[in-house]
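Journal club prep, notes for RB
We'll compare a predicted complex against what the paper describes. Inputs for the iron/sulfur cluster case:
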Amino acid sequence: MFDLGMIESVYAQMEEHIDNARKILNRPLTLSEKILYSHLSNEKTEVAFERGKSYVDFLPDRVAMQDATAQMALLQFMMAGRSNVAVPSTVHCDHLIQAKESANIDLAQAMDINGEVYDFLESVSNKYGIGFWKPGAGIIHQVVLENYAFPGGMMIGTDSHTVNAGGLGMVAIGVGGADAVDVMAGMPWELKFPKLIGIKLLGKLSNWVSAKDVILKVAGILTVKGGTGAIVEYFGPGADNMSCTGKGTICNMGAEIGATTSIFGYDEHMGKYLRATGRSAVADLADSHSSLLCADPDVVNEPKRFYDQVLEIDLNKLEPHLNGPFTPDRATPISKMKEEAEKENWPTNIQVGLIGSCTNSSYEDISRSVSIANQAVDKGLRTKARFTITPGSEQVRHTIERDGFIETLEQLGADIFSNACGPCIGQWARVGSEKQEKNTIVHSFNRNFAKRADGNPNTYAFVGSPELVTALAIAGDLTFDPQKDFLINDRGEKIFLKPPVGIDLPEKGFSVDDLGYQEPAKDGGSIEVVVNPDSERLQLLSPFEGFNKNNFKNIRLLIKAKGKCTTDHISMAGPWLKYRGHLDNISDNMLTGAINFFNGKPNSVKNHLNNLYEPVPVTQRAYKSSGVPTIVVGDENYGEGSSREHAAMEPRFLGVKVVLVRSFARIHETNLKKQGMLGLTFADKSDYDKILEDDVFNFIDLDLFSPNKQLTLVAKHLDGSEDVILCDHTYNKVQIKWFKAGSALNLIRSSNK
Ligand code: MIC
Ligand code: SF4
């Protein structure tokens, strides 16, 4: 068991902190407030923070990093001048394993291809006291849920789905690597005090309706930006009736509505889960502090008085959903899919069904899927589509193998891939995807942006529960509604599938031979971290230059991005994951997925140095070498999706000075600030329309940059006319210092010197 001492000390102080908060706020408290106020860096605060306004310093209990983001986080941490991490931290090797043949072959291949990166992560972890989860151990969020998450705790992780741990009552927040560096360096971590959305769940899940459908429905209501700046707190009888891992699924996909995090109060399901995963001592502690680990009763009884927004979902009336294509908030109940697919001309023939990922690979999830698979195997059905599974952890994989689930899934024709992200993040050697044919896949993951799973922009990906994906893979048809439609087996008989039945936790307990965990050295002082200067995969960082106002004159437009521009559009994953530790190399993917407003094409922008349309990175590198500053203009919710700070570091590295958009996603906005970039929003959103391709921009008042004061940008058009564009920003005093110093890290370095 990990962290018991730390958890004891969190609980020992919690009551006092909460009493203090109750005095300051003078009213009953939500769960999020209890946890946030008991993790303040200034414990003796006497102020009530304003939700959505106050910047507050916190001291999270732990940090988790996955391999694709840990490289950049740790390259930065190495510059911070510390000998050890200040709080318990872990690295998880999950994103770099490609799904191709089968688990063992793929894992061996990954060890070979990524050896240099794994060695780097392992030695840095060993040196600085960071726990290391080897390739094959599992996906970060599942491993965290099984080993580290605890009710009432607070953690940050360099991955947007860190929020998964809300299923175990933790405030767990996805951040960029630079934020992780703050916490690992022992500094307070700053967050704008979130707004609070309360979601009351009534009724009980039954038949084909699962926890996944709750969040698919919520995403449909709130959309991809509806949770921005807010914590979503779930409560009510529907929550009390739901397994801990089901709660995890709901919190996981809170990232898809932009929420800072999501959380459930401590209950008996969480206690059972802690015990089943070998943490009875933590469960005992949580039991004896249970009133601290839930919202106060008045809050639950009269939620409208205490949350900024309240929704109610009746699980008895909920339907199974499929969300997609191309965005996770386009929600369609399965009963309406036939109509919708016809109307939208979506391909209905399903090519592949994929289950697993950090979102849905619990024992319960697999057992529900297996209950469908069992019926199919018994009745002489096979899958019409290809069917694949990526287990979330070695512990789950080992246990489902012991309990015969893997065998059943294989009888149905499933391919079992490694315990890793795989197809969820484009690590999928899908045969034929390069032909870019229009096709449909269904999966139980969380994101379905264009090109995400297989690099093919014409793959229509729909997100659903694992059991629904299993049924759809058997039917091979997107419009199949297992609640009323039948299938025909090899003897020509009509088969109705019975609703899935799940097993919350394994009756015989979890079992595993090797967790895949490696404890760091007690004293790592003498461990040397080697980065080969000729490496293609790793590159030591050099500090970014500080603010110099002369660099902000005669700015050119690099790109005005049209519509959705997620971090996958700004810094694509899949084939580019291999350069996550090499800033120069990965910068060659910068904004290559963004659509140029002026010609409707990706990766084709006007290079004003030669008047040709060229790829974005090529154009920006040309500007960089000629010393031409540039601006990137974007639409709503710019930078939605991942926590990858590469989406902020690449433009910073290549010399972009400003990112001006209609609105930002939270993590991306912070990442830009941390890297010393100027991230602004249009004060008047319709000014987006005033930006023309040949404009030249000048700031008039950047030398007066201060909190709560707009900045003025003048856009000179080709015909000599001008538009004055007022820009809003959310920089506070410290963040302006980051900007002036060139990055937040530059400030840490100067204070550690
Ligand atoms: C994702 O799901 O998009 C990722 C890959 O896990 C990212 C992190 C990354 O880009 O490395 C995330 O969600 O933060
Ligand atoms: Fe991995 Fe996908 Fe989960 Fe991201 S969402 S951590 S890529 S499994």
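Talking point for the session: The two ends are 37 Å apart (CA to CA).
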